[in-house]
Automatic annotation (TrEMBL):
GO molecular function: catalytic activity
Family, similarity comment: Belongs to the enoyl-CoA hydratase/isomerase family.
Signal peptide per UniProt: none
Protein's name in the database: Enoyl-CoA hydratase/carnithine racemase
Cross-referenced PANTHER family: ENOYL-COA HYDRATASE, POLYKETIDE BIOSYNTHESIS ENOYL-COA HYDRATASE PKSH-RELATED
Length: 254
């Protein structure tokens, strides 16, 4: 599978799918394209809502691309890369349309940010999630405000510190997932029914729900430069590069 971002309009719903060969991890080019696609679809009058999903039936999103993180050698390139995650989340927040996210499997790091950037999120019982950035030697700084908005600062801090996986049930109890199904087939059936109903709703009402749901988040824009710099500078440390190589070796051995 080659990396891609694709969009399709179905019954006033813009379905955006992204995919990359390594557990749908996200390189910079895909982040940029995903953010722009969300904004482009959100600008269309005929679009009532946006569905964001990833390719395949395994991991929803493994966060940042390890290969790209290892290749980064300068602060400018690192800043641009982590800024890509900020662009995706900002697009989800500011596109003007309800954003629904479909999570079909485990998700880590930036993938958790995408789930938390959703206005409504579907998942399966296998969709455990974790903030694993500390394992690399960085932290979930860019996605932090979006995760905190859903689960609170204390739970966010705990996830960032222990890097342990939380179950789909936990994610539902803590407002990340809004619907958890036994399997992908059941999730997709529920999702299709939900999106069909959403397509019949008032565009004006949906837009206002989106607006009031994100009230009080304008300061995210002010936070981002410093948050991006935190991750961008830490990932350049030799220790971070060694951590990534160790994790890659461990994954290859499985």
């Amino acid at each position: 599978m080659n990396e891609f971002v694709a969009s399709e309009l179905k019954n006033n719903i813009a379905e955006i799918t992204f995919g990359t060969p390594k557990s749908n991890s996200l390189p910079g080019a895909i982040l940029e394209k995903l953010a722009q696609t969300i904004l482009d679809e959100g600008a269309k009058d005929e679009v009532k809502a946006i569905l964001v999903k990833s390719e395949g039936e395994k991991a929803f999103c493994a966060g940042a691309s390890f290969d790209e993180l290892l290749a980064i050698e300068e602060l400018e390139a690192s800043t641009q890369f982590f800024g890509g995650f900020a662009k995706v989340l900002n697009a989800m927040r500011n596109c003007g349309k309800i954003v629904v996210v479909r999570v079909q499997g485990k998700t880590t790091g930036g993938g958790v940010g995408i789930a938390c950037g959703a206005d409504y999120c579907f998942a399966t019982k296998d969709s455990a999630l974790a903030l694993t950035e500390i394992n690399l030697g960085i932290g979930p700084f860019v996605i932090g405000p979006y995760v905190e908005r859903k689960i609170g600062k204390s739970q966010f801090s705990a996830m960032a510190i222990d890097a342990d996986f939380r179950s789909a049930d936990w994610a539902e109890q803590h407002n990340i997932y809004h619907s958890v199904s036994e399997n992908i087939q059941e999730m997709d059936a529920s999702l299709e029914k939900f999106m069909t109903t959403l397509a019949s709703r008032s565009s004006e009402a949906l837009a206002l729900i989106k607006k009031v749901s994100w009230e009080g988040t304008d300061h995210f824009n002010e936070l981002m430069p410093a948050r991006i710099h935190m991750s961008a500078s830490l990932i350049l440390e030799d220790s971070a590069k060694k951590n990534i190589e160790t994790i890659k070796e461990r994954l290859r051995a499985k």
